[in-house]
């Protein structure tokens, strides 16, 4: 029996025998949510990036669901459901440490495309139909639905055709869509790099025309998108596209200027990012390690200039690292943990050549919390500079043999804290009054028995922002 294809206006429905998606490749908890919604008489679709990745034979990172059930109805169906968001209510259905994000179909608000005053602000609490929800999304390949009732793929936006052509295309006029949410330009770059797709002509033209409007986006969202460019071992192509379309000059102008003056296409920045993508630790690298790799060529240039002016005196590498990162910290409000990690990694690099023959100092160095990432940065730097790292196998063996340091995860000295405050423009730390500790009154030791500090890991979420209209 040949695969069946149904067409109605722009609607394309591919039946089960016409696509490669199988329920065994869908997360079991996502299936539970889909089936419970369907059994309750609701429309329930697997949506966005999960459908795209399944059709490409990839393993999705997240499984998101859209339904015609309103948020309060979803909450009544699932005891493990929590509603989040103000402008648009999302249901987070929790299974242990896993979250299945479930949203209600919504439509694009009816606003004048020429009304600049309202271009960046929309009321998202407007529910709609599945077709309206698909048209609201960012790119055609992210606008595909999988129907759990019929096992069919539903396409309102031409995403199947673009998926086969490996083309990233905006849904609607890219000149409007990119101005509605400028972060979509960064998402276009990220998806193109991650999937190995080309960006269609009209979207490329719109990015070049409106790239400066990325300044309209909030700083936290910009930082989140910058850090996402490092994921899936595609940092080099992602940042290269960001520079090619002039977005890098609007987000990190100092780095864009360095690339321009250090060879453009042959800049050492690309070699450093290529080496990071090839490193075994690339998938688990912290934000500090990733920014250290990105800024290593900039740091090396600053260190060389400082050494030349030092006239034989010892150069403070930590100070040079802080000065190199200062513009980035101020512009993107880099968190302290990332700032401390990146600067200290630069300071630790010479120890790999100096301490291998000094057992006492070497063992103390290996016990450092930052040692695994310092070793990763050293590997990346040697690969980028095409240098064979002497003693690499010995250092890696010590990593396995030596137990980790049992002290606190992040020890911040007063000097380091003031360095971050100076770099970020934050106000100096106030001196606590006598009788107070860290702004809190000291407690009697007996009253603190059994007290545990709350977890404050500060890891960024990989879930999509509700305003982007897309998926991871």
Description:
This protein is of the alpha+beta class and 472 residues long. It has three domains: 1-165, Beta Polymerase, domain 2, CATH 3.30.460; 166-251, Hydrophobic Seed Protein (Orthogonal Bundle); 264-424, no CATH class. It has helices at 28-39, 49-55, 71-77, 130-136, 159-165, 174-180, 183-195, 201-210, 219-228, 235-244, 247-251, 253-261, 268-278, 287-310, 317-332, 336-348, 351-354, 359-366, 371-384, 392-401, 414-424, and strands at 5-8, 11-14, 44-47, 64-67, 81-84, 90-95, 98-104, 144-147, 152-155, 167-168, 198-199, 436-437, 440-441. The longest helix is centred in the middle third of the chain and has 24 residues, at 287-310. The model is unreliable at 1-9, 406-411 and 433-469 (pLDDT under 50).
The side-by-side strand order for the widest beta sheet comes to 1-2-9-8-3-4-7-6-5
Look at the structure and give the CATH class of the largest domain. Answer: Alpha Beta
Measured by DSSP, the beta-strand proportion falls in 5-15%
- Classify the helix fraction into a percent range: 40-55%
Main sheet record: 9 strands, mixed
CATH topology of the largest domain: Beta Polymerase, domain 2
Provide the residue-averaged pLDDT: 85
Straight-line N-to-C gap: 36 Å
What are the segments in which pLDDT stays under 50 over at least 5 consecutive residues? 1-9, 406-411, 433-469
- The shape, in one word, is elongated
Q: What's the gyration radius in Å?
A: 25 Å
Task: Please tally the helical runs, counting DSSP H or I stretches of 4 or more residues.
Answer: 21
Q: Architecture of the largest domain, CATH level 2?
A: 2-Layer Sandwich
Q: Please identify the structural class as seen in this structure.
A: alpha+beta
Instruction: Tell me which oligomeric state these chains represent.
Output: single chain
Q: Total domains, how many?
A: 3
CATH superfamily of the largest domain: Beta Polymerase, domain 2
What is the number of E strands? 13
